[in-house]
């Protein structure tokens, strides 16, 4: 099908257009680095001779008479055991794992395969690609997820030989009902886990247990499926595969033979508005301006930013700018994309992207992964996404066919500004290792209850859940959750459905339905764990570029009612945090303090919100709120600060110094723990009720924790040094977002004492 006229015209002008845009930015002194990534040629080989003739013939018909060398290597390796294919964006990983699976299904009509994707959009995309292979009744793919109509599910279980799903549906809708899947599981020959690098941290730790439960119920039906994993380039693909699945001896295929068109890479720092305060122009405003400039220049563009609110804000600003400049047609051809939209809304946006109806999209990391979103020329990433691997994935979404443009717009966050002062620290930084811990007490304990529902737990299940399985089960017996009979463990209350209480992706499995006050229509959802700070009464909430003001939030009923809003301001919630020490697991003396690591309980309460003007982000007023607290157990490091380290500070200066030091350590811990700032939280207090002394906590922001803060415990001197260097290298006078202010501070960055924090950290280093 020929490209739509809009796409053809834009592709022709793309490179020339962005050259002019970037040249103007260089003159404006906002470009801190511009480099080029050279194109790479393809390395190919002939189709394997041991391939099923029907598969070979179909590939030739599709014009695939050769394969990339990593696809051939994956084919050979899959015959001998589990495989993980770890290569770059758009390198053909899908075909690499599809070929061994298709060969198996063609040779054995009874064989079944299960494909697991982290998002519904990816499953939809792969289902279309498989249908296009044209194998007729020999290949019967079907999607089985939360959007699949109930009326179609039984037929899919009965007839499909390749099912595409996600970890959430596998966890809550397939494994607990495994008796309905007896035939499928009894013939399960292959399991594919795509985008495996996504499964890190808390999410990955949960999914690791879901995969173990899958292996367990398949084993009960007499099958041991072959596992094929695909991942973006990461530092530890083999370790990730083995930790995620619980299977040893994965073969790693990481010799990328795919071609790449090369790209221009630009680091962009918004201009300073106030030298003393260190304040810069809004990264969101800069992103909206660049987004519009590129689109006007004929460059199809995707803009990534982490926050859902920021996605909506950038899209709204870009739309307003395009309309104001007389580019109304282009304004209608841009859209936001994020979680929380209805399935119909997501599918329509994906279709418009693939068919070239949209010339620009602003997205969370929901579009970071390998879904086909058509031909894009430029990818903008606003703020550091947490890992170099994610940044490269985002940049790789553009320039797949021709030379692309990759832009990193720094926020005023400390880590962003560190990279702008040292571009090589970002551009030459190696991709990280994926960190996850399926054996985390809280996470594994929850999945043991799910496993007990699926089939009683016995000694043989140590293969899946660890050598200390009996002790863990006995603890759950003592808690009244399991019961033991003849050495086997089952649910104490068989009528319960444990999977419904375990959310793989957030602190709570519960969601809040978002309803329009005028029509009563439910237009989206939000995780309950985010509700208090996001859709409290009076909050301004953005959805698909439209603004709503929240009238009512019913946490118990799971509903928020809101009405259309036309004002020129937004809201920012303030939270109070308390941290209670439950258990001290490790202690060491380092840098003049007793550093401790252990279990804590964090309690957060939203106490009110500010209204801020969209134009300049100045506060308009403050409204108090009375919201119920949110409490969760997690892991933390903490230390009491000796009096001699705080000499010369009054009470307000003391609080400000502790608070600023806490922020600086949270800002740089991601460089050690290979996580994201948003995975961490903290508390600093002049007198903690348990320690009786000034104390600083840095804790994990997710229930249970997976050991991120333990990396800070092990490398504490590096953490203190990096935090000191961060503050010392910032030219602002009294503290700014580039050093001690935090974008996620519940206290709205009050109080802060930059010099006091610098002195404290210097004294710790001297000690």
Characterize the structure shown.
The protein has 767 residues and is of the alpha/beta class. The chain folds into 5 domains: 5-39 and 260-427, 3-Layer(aba) Sandwich (Rossmann fold); 44-253, P-loop containing nucleotide triphosphate hydrolases (Rossmann fold, 3-Layer(aba) Sandwich); 441-501, Arc Repressor Mutant, subunit A (Orthogonal Bundle), CATH 1.10.10; 511-567, no CATH class; 574-766, no CATH class. Helix content is 37%, strand content 25%. It contains 25 helices and 31 strands. A 7-stranded mixed β-sheet has the order 1-11-18-17-14-16-15, with helices on both faces. Strands 6-7-5-8-9-4-10 form a 7-stranded parallel β-sheet, sandwiched between helices. Strand 15 (334-337), helix 14 and strand 16 (360-363) form a beta-alpha-beta unit. Helix 9 runs parallel beside helix 18 (441-454). The N and C termini lie far apart (69 Å). The relative contact order is 0.09. Mean pLDDT is 90; it is low at 1-13.
CATH C-level of the largest domain: Alpha Beta
Helix content: 25-40%
Distance between the termini: 69 Å
* Low-confidence spans: 1-13
Q: What Rg, in angstroms, do the CA atoms define?
A: 26 Å
